[in-house]
Amino acid sequence: MKRSTLMGLVMIPLTLAACSAQETGSPENSADVKFQETLQLKLLDAKSGDVITIPEGTFHFDRSLSLTVDGVTIRGAGMDKSILSFKGQVAGAEGLFVTANNFTIENLAIEDTIGDALKISEGNNIVIRGIRTEWTNGPSTKNGAYGIYPVQTTNVLMEGNVAIGASDAGLYIGQSKNVIIKGNRAEFNVAGIEIENTINADVYDNIATNNTGGILVFNMPALKQEGKNTRVFNNKVYENNTKNFGHKGTPVASVPAGTGVTINSNDNVEIFNNEIRDNKTANIIVSSVYSTNYSEGETTTDYDPYPEAIYIYDNQFSGGGNSPDGLDLKALKVSMFGLKGSFPDILWDGYYNKGKLVNGKMPVEFSICINNGDIGIANADGPGGYKNPTKDMSIHKCDLPKLQPVKLGTAG
Questions:
Q1: How far apart are CA 373 and CA 299, in angstroms?
Q2: Rounded to the nearest 5°, which phi and psi values hold at 179?
Q3: Checking DSSP bridges between strand 57-60 and strand 177-182, what pairing results, if any?
Q4: C-alpha 20: how far from its chain's center?
Q5: Cα separation of 35 and 84, whole Å?
Q6: Measured between alpha carbons, how far is residue 412 from residues 9, 87, 122, 179, 367 in Å?
Q7: Phi then psi for 254, rounded to 5 degrees?
Q8: Is the separation of the CB atoms in 29 and 20 below 8 Å?
Q9: Domain spans, the chain
Q10: How far apart (Å, rounded) are the C-alpha atoms in residues 175 and 82?
Q11: Ramachandran category for residue 393: left, alpha or beta (phi over 0 → left; psi -120 to 50 → alpha)
Q12: Predicted TM-score (pTM) of this structure
């Protein structure tokens, strides 16, 4: 990949003619074909510092778009005004695929792609602002996996976006470093917002509702980078009760419907100052990869499967836990809290690293610490086959050093 040193160049606006601004026809419409060819040519011929402007209108595409040039901005007139529709897509795996540094995209929509809507791979200094990704037919396994999908990136700002209908994650960041995800809305996805194998992420001022799971902080095996240091705060995470429509065998397919925030096999995670309510399985789940559809045999020897140094404090909880997804969880709820009872706000599968015990106790620095009023936790006893679940809060009454805010460097 080229390394751009031209961030200081005067940006040259490249405004595309609105030849299809009011068209609503198929991708074979001549105006749509002309606009598609014009936009792809602008992307291919772009130079660092260029601004490619998408005018108002709905524009139809039957194949993917791509950009490989550093230092480019793509700018529309608004997420409900400049719409790139891929409903007739017949070629390509994404709507827009970007492999470039110092890239900004803002104020437009990408709809109904076959695969991922917006994928950005291996770029530094990325800004994604005011983008809407949506599958307009509603939740469906036939929808593309990811709405906004930066992977193996550094210094990423995702701000003021909307993601609807992804069959994996609406807003996803994977194997990346130094990330801020703020002021977004994720709705009717399997995972609303997902942080996976990422180091240093701040997730705040977002709304996650009507997803299967609202916000996920995952650490999956067999990837080059393990994740740590994530802060989830000042978010509204409520009524994430949509039936899981993810593809079988994917990590999100194991997320129970009715999950607010899930931490899976990740370390150094803070959950604080959020409003989390009415998620029918549990408002927060803390779990190991051993509770997912990834077997122990699929992990590598250097992979840490245990969630450690989890700090939950100063959140507002209400409702939730009254109607968990799946027969096993329903049976567990009844056995612990009765037919009319509910899980407490935090549900833990009970997996921990016995090799780190000191005199039979887990040191605080590896513990799940809770300082959140009188909320409770249910330990499901996964390692024991779920035979002896408990409600013991005593081992969780602890505090951890607070993480530092993420700094993006030159991004944003």
A1: 37
A2: -135, 135
A3: unpaired
A4: 33
A5: 11
A6: 17, 31, 17, 11, 35
A7: -90, -5
A8: yes
A9: 115-396
A10: 30
A11: alpha
A12: 0.92
Strands (E) located in 135-280: 146-151, 154-159, 162-164, 169-174, 177-182, 185-187, 191-196, 199-204, 207-209, 213-218, 228-233, 236-238, 259-264, 267-272, 275-277
Residue corresponding to tokens 């210094």: 155
**Strand 368-371, strand 308-313: pairing:** parallel
Residue with tokens 């009454």: 397
10 Å Cβ neighbour count for 59? 25
Name beta bridge partners: 202: 180, 231
Beta strand pairing status for 73-75 and 82-85?
Answer: unpaired
Contacts of 364 (CB under 8 A, 6+ apart): 398, 399, 400
Residue 310 is encoded by which pair of tokens?
């989890």
Tokens of 256: 């129970």
Residue 256 near residue 325, CB atoms below 8 Å: yes
Q: Per-residue pLDDT tens, the chain, 412 aa: give them.
A: 333 332 333 333 444 544 443 444 444 566 778 899 999 999 999 999 999 999 999 999 999 999 999 999 999 999 999 999 999 899 999 999 999 999 999 999 999 999 999 999 999 999 999 999 999 999 999 999 999 999 999 999 999 999 999 999 999 999 999 999 999 999 999 999 999 999 999 999 999 999 999 999 999 998 889 999 999 999 999 999 999 999 988 889 989 999 999 999 999 999 999 999 999 999 999 999 998 866 544 556 688 999 999 999 999 999 999 999 999 999 999 999 999 999 999 999 999 999 999 999 999 999 999 999 999 999 999 999 999 999 999 999 999 999 999 999 844 4
CB neighbour class for 38 (10 Å; exposed up to 12, middle 13-18, buried from 19): middle
Residue with tokens 């198929």: 26
Distance CA(286)–CA(216), nearest Å, equals 10
10 token code pair: 């005067």
**Amino acid, res. 299:** T
| CB distance 192 to 173 below 8 Å | no
